[in-house]
UniProtKB/TrEMBL annotation, chains A, B:
Belongs to the NAPRTase family. It catalyses: 5-phospho-alpha-D-ribose 1-diphosphate + nicotinate + ATP + H2O = nicotinate beta-D-ribonucleotide + ADP + phosphate + diphosphate. One of its GO terms (cellular component) is cytosol. It comes from Thermopolyspora flexuosa. Its EC number is 6.3.4.21. GO terms for biological process: NAD+ biosynthetic process via the salvage pathway. Pfam families: NAPRTase_N. Catalyzes the first step in the biosynthesis of NAD from nicotinic acid, the ATP-dependent synthesis of beta-nicotinate D-ribonucleotide from nicotinate and 5-phospho-D-ribose 1-phosphate. Keywords: Glycosyltransferase, Ligase, Phosphoprotein, Pyridine nucleotide biosynthesis, Transferase. This is Nicotinate phosphoribosyltransferase.
Length: 439, 439
């Protein structure tokens, strides 16, 4: 499947005009960054990079796309000719997937001709804005849940393909599993699920339903106990499955109160090892509020797939440098009110203190690590950990070099968050965890 | 492409258990409805039906899907056997696309065996929840814009495939066009676009950029005038393109103030017919606030594709009736705290007054139109328009019968909103435009 028409109309009219004038062949640098973090969050999380590399590989204009564009009068002969041979041949550097970012962090740097780089704007932003928004929410939920596992189950609350990407992003950020089967097939994310209220309602009694489920899925299954009366259902569940029952699920009511009641009842019935999973409109705040309740796992749906109040990451794709008529690369920046950009190709480093805690995000137009500055910021003159570079090669002369297993991104995210100052984990809106310093 | 794994894991474990017990073959009725409208909106809009019918046609378990499910231990032999021959053979009725709905409206009624109907839950909800959320926001924006056209341009702020569906939903609700090329190819939505700030920055001067654009796209194009200084850019634009220039676009700053200034300047320069399009984080409230400003068109991005604060429609898919052990259909309903459902297969009618204005949404378990009640509600005893049935056949014994051109849904939406009481158009949160009466 070609991804080439996941593109705004104006990318092609710009290309058409620039091909006519010749400016299309000027070398150009576009960067992806966020001016702010939505919801005044403490940190952002890069996600979608792996998906972007897959989509880039399929960014080709075939007969169907070209015929459509010509019939609609969007492109002329010259543009059609250019597009029929289009293959991104430039370089892409980026923050690796799972890495944290802050306002101004150049999380993706795309270099090539104006023609080949401008065309990618829409696709790049769609993928990174969606996946990073979900990741930022997921990461906060994982921190709020502490050592308790989280199950992603929001597929039904978002576009069917966005659901797959959301499950992937949540896994990167530490979710244990997803309900989405396609995320299992396509990305290897562990999937889980047992039964819904419909299954209980299908049977002539709750006991029938529980018996059928346990017979089929075993005693380690999770029985849903809030279709009718929770306490009656818990008693029935233990009668049917015995005290080896894996878990019971509560999906409604006051979850803290219900968890305490169900825990007491399970213990009274001798089912000390039977766990409790709670679901139902949970977000990071609700999860945190349940910390003292006897809950063993959380299922999160709507709030995860909608970014918990911030459904898009506000990332933009801006031209920061291009060749001039004399062939010299020049930094460029727009001066639109409230939406300024900084000219010049960026490099980025995270300054780390001697205690291993991040101090600042250094963004600079110099390719070398500004060691003096990093050391000063890290308060560790002569220290051994002045910082680390954040941009890694993803595409070199059109060849994809940045693929990695999803678990690598998951482990990177764990380390990246662990390195942030403790205030990063506050759920309240506030300052970013570390300042961005433009050097 | 199979859509079968756009499905939650638990649909398959329920199927597996129900196949083992035999309950899978009981006849069942599932309904889609909303308990409330997110954001306390006045009305909801059904969207996604056409996409759902396409997805249903491709809901097949092939070798790749079955191998995955077996390897993961999610299904057993019997379930694999069932799935390999799966083809939905039941009936689906639904509110036609573009129709307005209210809390409790049974917008989709799916009938068949439990096995064949339970499997569709996730896919049905993903599509309807996403598309209807976008449609509800789009409809409010169109009302706020009055006779001025709206351009959908939010692709970059949402998942790349969700973007295509969002453009489609916005068009149903009255948006004039989209920036998304794939929505043009796949659904015939008109597409538009001219240039971005990058195009101006690419050139050595703003005048160069404007000249290249006008040479390529003609004088009827839209020039973007806020890359540097707006007033300078407007003067340059008219110098380059003449007073026949189509439009100028403003994407930053105080849009009302800028529109007034730019209008005055265009008039001073003799460009009386050159229009002004404004873009930049517009939602229905911002659009309404610009009613008195000299604006000719609006471009809407982020807020449209994220549902303007309500990114999902809160639609659920609930079992409302099923066969019992004796083969008799029985209504069923869960009693979960705060999440009750109403048992029985529903029918729905909109009561219309003699003035042509909707009075109530009648939801009943009786297949015949409750004429007495409708007439009473419509305050038109003996009147000619007591109401109209809302459910139409979409699938009959597995055969898709509900396909229609997208423009039919667009026209239906226009009529459906026009029929609502004036308070329906208030943008503030409040009561639904008409009450839902369970008869």
């Amino acid at each position: 499947m070609s991804t080439a028409l996941h593109t705004d109309h104006y990318e092609l009219t710009m290309l058409r005009a620039a091909l006519a004038s010749g400016a299309a062949h000027r070398r150009a640098v576009f960067e992806v960054f966020a001016r702010r973090l939505p919801g005044d969050r403490r940190y952002g999380v890069v996600a979608g990079t792996g998906r972007l590399l897959d989509a880039l590989e399929n960014f080709r204009f075939g007969e169907e796309e070209l015929t459509f564009l010509r019939r609609r009068g969007i492109i002329d002969d010259r543009t059609a000719e250019y597009l029929s041979g289009y293959r991104f041949g430039g370089d892409v550097h980026g923050y690796p997937e799972g890495e944290c970012y802050f306002p101004g962090s150049p999380i993706l740097v795309v270099e090539g001709t104006f023609a080949e780089t401008v065309l990618l704007e829409t696709l790049v932003l769609s993928i990174l804005n969606h996946d990073s928004a979900i990741a930022a929410a997921a990461s906060r939920m994982v921190r709020a849940a502490g050592s308790r596992p989280l199950i992603e189950m929001g597929s039904r609350r978002t576009h069917e393909d966005a659901a797959v990407a959301a499950a992937r992003a949540a896994y990167i950020c530490g979710f244990a599993s997803t309900s989405n089967l396609l995320a299992g097939l396509r990305y290897g994310v562990p999937t889980t699920g047992t039964s819904a209220h419909a299954f209980t309602l299908l049977h002539d009694s709750e006991a029938d339903a529980f018996r059928v489920q346990v017979d089929s899925l075993g005693r380690s299954t999770t029985l849903l106990v809030d279709t009718y009366d929770v306490k009656t259902a818990v008693r029935t569940a233990i009668e049917v499955a015995g005290t080896d029952l894996g878990m019971v699920r509560i999906d409604s009511g006051d979850l803290a109160e219900a968890a305490h009641e169900v825990r007491a009842l399970l213990d009274e019935l001798g089912a000390h090892r039977t766990g409790i999973v709670v679901t139902g409109d949970l977000d990071e705040h609700a999860i945190a509020a349940l910390a003292a309740a006897p809950v063993n796992a959380y299922g999160v749906g709507t709030k995860l797939v909608t970014g918990s109040g911030a459904p898009t990451a506000a990332l933009v794709y801006k031209l920061v440098a291009r060749e001039d008529a004399q062939g010299v690369m020049r930094p460029v920046a727009k001066r639109s009110v409230g939406k300024p950009s900084r000219g010049g190709r960026k490099f980025a480093f995270r300054a780390i203190g001697p205690d291993g805690i991040a101090r600042a995000e250094i963004v600079t137009t110099a390719p070398a690590m500004p060691v003096d500055q990093l050391e000063a910021l890290a308060e560790s003159p002569g220290g051994e950990r002045p910082g680390r570079p954040l941009l890694v090669p993803l595409v070199r002369k059109g060849e994809i070099v940045g693929r990695e297993p999803l678990d690598a991104a998951r482990e990177r995210h764990r380390r990246s968050v662990a390195e942030l100052p403790p205030a990063a984990l506050h759920l309240s809106p506030g300052d970013t965890a570390i300042p961005t310093v433009f050097a």
